[in-house]
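Quick one, probably user error.
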């Protein structure tokens, strides 16, 4: 059996793809396959993938019409043969020892998920990710449902190594919403909710690019994709009552953090419509008794009440602040 299957979703990334695939090729760990899923690229991405296939038989191709990120990832999960699965975004790149470090930790501790830290970088800057890292015990085997702060990290599915048997047995897959983005949100939530053995190692082994204009984080038109993800999260947790009871009060907090970030980045012309969806979700939280005020700061509770009862005022205030 192959040790690691590396899934690389590709869509019009000719500018960065060589650097990404080269960083995989240079890994100190050698027992892997690389499955590049070309989602109907119209630039030279396909030719770049084929050039790597020509020089290394571990590189493989799934070439398909453009059906979106979720479908691409599910195709990769279906075809991969590795004991563990790594997902590397095609505009990022990794340290030479990333696979070796994560695989060694995963095998030694029989982990469902091994996770490392990462650098956030652009052509102008580089910084270490610090989001919620201080709240997670490093180098300890944890069950995420007993350490809820694990859920508060950015999804960052590309710094996790997943046991394939764990993913398959639990039937964890991506939403395939056409044209959507942020489909890692519900995927990684399900991973953590079902995971029994998780470990975080406090080393930055991946470089996460933020200056790719084609990246979903820079696409200001996809206003409602995060709403689909949180609807899926609620659906999933309600189908697993023990999980729901553990985390139901945290879902509104996680959603608030995600929605507020999304609200500030989307096109201003879409904010009014987005607030209506947000208002509906908040009303549902109250009607289903999911709001626990001690988990929110005073400022966040004020914002939630404003969105619930006077979203037009919230919209005006946020525009003024921006």
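Nope, works fine. Designed sequence:
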């Amino acid at each position: 059996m192959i040790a690691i299957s590396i899934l690389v979703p590709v869509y019009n990334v000719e500018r960065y793809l060589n650097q990404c695939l080269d960083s995989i090729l240079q890994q100190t760990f050698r027992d892997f396959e690389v499955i590049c899923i070309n989602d109907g690229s119209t630039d030279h991405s396909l030719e770049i993938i084929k050039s790597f296939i020509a020089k290394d038989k571990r590189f493989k191709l799934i070439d398909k019409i453009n059906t979106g990120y979720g479908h691409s990832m599910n195709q990769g999960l279906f075809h991969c043969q590795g004991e563990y699965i790594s997902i590397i975004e095609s505009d990022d790149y990794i340290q030479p020892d990333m696979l070796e470090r994560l695989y060694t930790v995963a095998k030694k501790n029989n982990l469902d998920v091994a996770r490392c830290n990462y650098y956030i970088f652009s052509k102008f800057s580089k910084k270490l990710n610090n989001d919620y890292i201080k709240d997670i015990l490093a180098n300890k085997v944890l069950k995420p449902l007993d350490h809820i702060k694990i859920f508060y990290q950015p999804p960052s599915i590309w710094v996790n190594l997943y046991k394939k048997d764990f993913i398959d047995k639990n039937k964890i897959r991506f939403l395939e919403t056409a044209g959507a983005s942020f489909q890692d949100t519900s995927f990684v939530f399900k991973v953590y909710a079902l995971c029994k053995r998780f470990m975080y190692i406090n080393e930055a082994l991946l470089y996460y690019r933020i200056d790719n204009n084609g990246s979903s984080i820079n696409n200001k038109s996809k206003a409602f994709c995060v709403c689909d993800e949180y609807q899926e999260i609620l659906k999933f947790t309600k189908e697993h009552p023990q999980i729901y009871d553990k985390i139901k009060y945290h879902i509104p907090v996680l959603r608030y953090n995600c929605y507020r970030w999304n609200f500030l980045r989307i096109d201003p012309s879409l904010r009014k419509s987005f607030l209506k969806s947000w208002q509906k979700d908040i009303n549902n939280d109250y009607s289903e008794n999911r709001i626990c005020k001690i988990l929110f700061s005073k400022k966040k509770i004020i914002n939630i009440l404003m969105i619930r009862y006077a979203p037009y005022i919230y919209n005006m205030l946020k525009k003024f602040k921006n």
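Residues 32 and 254 are 35 Å apart (CA to CA).
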